[in-house]
Every structure is written in C-alpha cells, then in structure tokens.
Design brief:
With 126 residues, this protein is an alpha+beta fold. Helix content is 23%, strand content 21%. The chain contains 2 helices and 6 strands. The protein has a 4-stranded antiparallel beta sheet. It has a two-stranded antiparallel ribbon with strand order 5-6. The longest helix is centred in the C-terminal third of the chain and has 15 residues. It is globular, with a radius of gyration of 14 Å. It starts with a helix and ends with a strand.
C-alpha cells in the first residue's frame, strides 16, 4: 500500500497543490521506492526566505503513511515548530500535524507548514 499511496501523491504533485503556495515532487526520478522528495513553500512575507521561497527535503520511510515523513528545511530558521537543529520540523508543534493520521499526505504537511509560517514569521539564520 505504501507505494500506491506515494504514486497517488506523485500524480497529485504533478497536477499542483491548490493555489500554488506549495509544491512538491520526487527528488530522484529513478527512485523506485520513492523515499526522497523536494518541497517548496512560497514565502508569504517575502522576508526571511531564499529567493522568495523555502526549500524542504521530505523523507518518506518504510512506515509511511502510517508514520509521518521527516521534513527538513534546507536552511536553518528561527521559528517555533522546529527541532534544535533549526531545520527539522517537529510535527507535535504544528497545528494540523500534532496527531498524525495515515490519511494525511505531503500536500497536507506543506499546507500546515505554510499556515505556520504565515502565523510565526520565521527568520533566516544565514
């Protein structure tokens, strides 16, 4: 079932998410197990991001979607909802992600992160 879920998400990613504030796609087209993905969230504040957007790496382990993916910003940020490394998302601190459900997907994760960014205005540490 994991690969069927990820194939469905890949198809959704190719069509685009909602109004274009977020996007994601497979990092390596030849990754048959679909472990590594790239995500983008456009900066609503146009302030602390690099070139107007935040880049993320998404890792969907063998237990996905039963367990959440690991989501990491590619640049350190000063913002609540991140672990001590200031890059890795702490799902327990993000509205809409605190209690993971297997029905959630990467689009849901990115939309919740976008809302969190709107609310908390992160600052870049670079």
């Amino acid at each position: 079932p994991r690969n069927f879920v990820l194939l469905r998400e890949l198809e959704q990613a190719e069509k685009g998410i909602g109004d274009g504030r977020c996007s994601y796609g497979l990092k390596y087209p030849d990754d048959a197990m679909m472990y590594r993905w790239d995500g983008t969230i456009f900066d609503p504040h146009h302030s602390s991001s690099e070139n107007g957007f935040y880049s993320l790496e998404i890792y969907c382990g063998d237990e996905y979607p039963k367990k959440p993916p690991t989501v990491t910003f590619t640049q350190p940020l000063r913002m609540s909802g991140l672990h001590d490394d200031m890059c890795t998302v702490d799902f327990s601190a993000i509205d809409g992600l605190k209690t993971w459900k297997s029905s959630y997907g990467m689009a849901h994760v990115l939309k919740c992160l976008y809302s969190h960014i709107v609310k908390h205005k992160p600052r870049s540490l670079r």
